[in-house]
């Protein structure tokens, strides 16, 4: 409940809507309550006229006027309900927008670690459920529950005027209802949580399967994926079975108790009328009032159900909202909107760095994804500005991890990392990341056009700029051959392109960012040798004088770098120029020999 109130409190900007909804609820209540009084007046008049044995024209007119009053009241009620409903819908839509954006903002600011452990589908599933259930409840509350609740309260007051035992009896309903509900709530919430966990797991797998449908198809796993999915839902049925049986059992109890209370109420009204304590008109009035009070009470079952879902949803919402965002440096300059160090923070203007300051400096760095083992240890590495360095090592040696650390995707466990002379612990992440142009190992693109993808880091780039970087990445030629050229839509994650095409667009994207340090993580691994050479030639010119860190699969393509660093089991193994290292007979020389003999054998076979 607290989480739900907190959610309302956090949407203060919707106050005008809340006030509007409140006002319309008051009007709806007032009009709904007028009806019994008009009917009472009519009944009194009719009883009188019928009792007198004759009637006058004035009697008929008076009765008709009362009917007109009923019409007026009903029309007002209709109008106000709909206006209120409209406000309710708008408030819910706005709330949905506010909560969704906040949730998204929060997610975007969460550390890489969060996304390493949570499945995409799960995250999305949770977002839509939490927010849908909260806003749906608030909408139902505004449209249905609030007016009826007010009506019930008014009925209590009015019935107290006529008969206090009656009012007292009616009043017992509320504590009884709430008590019975509170009794069931904890267990219900627990089962709801279990169910949602299953939905989230199923949703996570679902998104993964659809995203990698090719693998599923080629391994013929459609049926087993479907079965696993269905099994998750089967579990939710078991939980729903318990949850619903429990809920409806308690609801029957609640409403049964209520039926007994209403029996007492009706009995009092009937008996008191027979005893001439109430007139027939008053009896008609009271019966209508009591019926008005019945309505919200039955609606309450539905509402409590929906409220409990909303409470579960809002709790989940706050759990995500309270996740710790990516750590921002304590003394980081907080430029506009960077309150939590979100990646959207604008980089602060950077002063030119003296050329003798190293571009990258790892000092005694140690890192592991989990408590144990360390993936990188004793990393001491200095890369000068303008230097071109290649990272070499066997797969799993920690090359990509080193890049992730540079980008501040993870924090060092020990040691220091300085980028262009600044301690990364004292920089905002946005600032840090503005120093790098990166091509990741899995050159992921977005589902837009080629142009949009290249301009991703620099959307205001001109067509000429986009084309220039595409040429350098050796991508212009193949883009030109597409029917729509730069406007070609690449499909989800770029799936309509070949691996090599994707990589070249990713290289162009990194080049356009024009950051001081260029990082290529196996950026040309999916290219054939000829294209790779062409890309490298384009890059060589670009890397001239620019700090570049390259991880290359084919060692022949990095023979021109200034220095090679080999990583072995998470430690720096060798450092030297390509020529030096090929002579020492270490890891680099071994890998080189393996590749060269492989290539030679390949050539021989041809
Ligand atoms: P390389 O790029 O040199 O092939 P990586 O840096 O990708 O190697 O991986 C180094 C080690 O860290 C591997 O043993 C890998 O299993 C592990 N690793 C990589 N990424 C993660 C991650 N997100 N969570 C946990 N372990 C990881
Ligand atoms: Mg790697």
From TrEMBL:
Q: Which domain of life is it from?
A: Bacteria
Q: Name all ABC transporter domain ranges.
A: 360-594
Keywords carried by this UniProt record: ATP-binding, Membrane, Nucleotide-binding, Transmembrane, Transmembrane helix
Q: Where is this region: Disordered?
A: 332-353
CDD domains linked to this entry = ABC_6TM_exporters
Q: How does it sit in the membrane?
A: Multi-pass membrane protein
> Where in the numbering of this chain does the ABC transmembrane type-1 domain appear?
19-309
Report whether Transmembrane helix shows up as a keyword of the record. yes
Tell me where the transmembrane regions lie: 21-42, 62-87, 137-158, 164-183, 252-271
Among the entry's GO cellular component annotations, what is one?
plasma membrane
Compartments it resides in: Cell membrane
GO molecular function terms listed in the Swiss-Prot or TrEMBL record: ABC-type transporter activity; ATP binding; ATP hydrolysis activity; ATPase-coupled lipid transmembrane transporter activity
**Name of this chain's protein:** ATP-binding cassette, subfamily B
Q: Which organism is it from?
A: Kytococcus aerolatus
């Amino acid at each position: 409940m607290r989480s739900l109130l907190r959610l309302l409190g956090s949407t203060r900007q919707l106050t005008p809507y809340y006030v509007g909804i409140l006002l319309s609820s008051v009007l709806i209540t007032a009009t709904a309550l007028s009806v019994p009084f008009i009917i009472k007046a009519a009944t009194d008049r009719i009883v009188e006229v019928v009792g007198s044995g004759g009637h006058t024209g004035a009697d008929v007119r008076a009765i008709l006027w009362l009917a007109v009053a009923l019409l007026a009241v009903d029309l007002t009620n209709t109008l106000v309900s709909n206006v209120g409903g409209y406000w309710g819908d708008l408030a819910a839509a706005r709330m949905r927008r506010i909560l969704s954006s906040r949730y998204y903002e929060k997610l975007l600011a969460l550390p890489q670690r969060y996304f390493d452990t949570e499945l995409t589908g799960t995250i999305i599933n949770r977002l839509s459920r939490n927010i849908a259930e909260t806003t749906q409840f608030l909408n139902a509350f505004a449209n249905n529950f609030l007016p009826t609740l007010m009506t019930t309260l008014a009925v209590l007051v009015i019935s107290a005027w006529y008969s206090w035992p009656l009012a007292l009896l009616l009043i017992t309903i509320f504590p009884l209802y709430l008590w019975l509900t509170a009794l069931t709530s904890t267990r219900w919430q627990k089962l709801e949580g279990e169910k949602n966990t299953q939905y989230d797991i199923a949703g996570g797998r679902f998104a993964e399967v659809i995203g990698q449908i090719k693998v599923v198809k080629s391994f013929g796993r459609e049926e087993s994926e479907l079965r696993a999915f269905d099994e998750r839902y089967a579990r939710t049925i078991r939980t729903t079975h318990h949850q619903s049986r429990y809920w409806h059992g308690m609801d029957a109890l609640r409403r049964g108790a209520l039926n007994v209370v209403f029996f007492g109420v009706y009995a009092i009204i009937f008996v008191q009328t027979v005893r001439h304590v109430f007139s027939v008109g008053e009896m008609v009035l009271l019966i209508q009032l009591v019926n008005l009070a019945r309505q919200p009470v039955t609606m309450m079952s539905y509402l409590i159900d929906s409220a409990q879902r909303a409470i579960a949803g809002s709790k989940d919402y706050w759990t995500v909202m309270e996740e710790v965002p990516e750590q921002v440096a304590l003394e980081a300059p907080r430029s506009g909107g960077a309150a939590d160090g979100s990646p959207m923070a604008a980089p602060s203007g950077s002063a030119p760095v003296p050329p003798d300051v190293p571009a990258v400096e790892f000092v005694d760095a140690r890192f592991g994804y989990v408590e144990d083992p360390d993936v990188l240890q004793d990393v001491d590495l200095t890369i000068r500005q303008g230097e071109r360095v290649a990272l070499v090592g066997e797969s799993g040696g920690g090359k990509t991890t080193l890049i992730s650390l540079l980008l501040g995707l993870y924090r060092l466990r020990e040691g220091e990392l300085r980028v262009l002379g600044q301690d990364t612990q004292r920089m905002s992440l946005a600032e840090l990341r503005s120093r790098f142009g990166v091509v990741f190992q899995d050159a992921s693109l977005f589902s837009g056009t080629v142009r949009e993808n290249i301009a991703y880091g620099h959307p205001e780039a001109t067509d000429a700029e986009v084309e220039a970087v595409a040429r350098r990445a050796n991508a212009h030629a193949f883009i030109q051959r597409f029917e729509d050229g730069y406007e070609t839509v690449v499909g989800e994650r770029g799936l309509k392109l070949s691996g090599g095409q994707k990589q070249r667009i990713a290289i162009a994207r990194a080049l356009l960012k024009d950051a001081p340090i260029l990082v290529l993580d196996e950026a040309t691994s999916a290219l054939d040798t000829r294209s790779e050479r062409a890309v490298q030639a384009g890059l060589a010119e670009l890397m001239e004088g620019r700090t570049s860190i390259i991880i290359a699969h084919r060692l022949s393509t990095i023979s021109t770098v200034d220095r090679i660093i080999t990583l072995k089991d998470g430690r720096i193994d060798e450092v030297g120029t390509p020529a030096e290292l090929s002579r020492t007979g270490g890891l680099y020389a071994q890998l080189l020999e393996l590749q060269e003999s492989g290539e030679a054998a390949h050539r021989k076979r041809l």
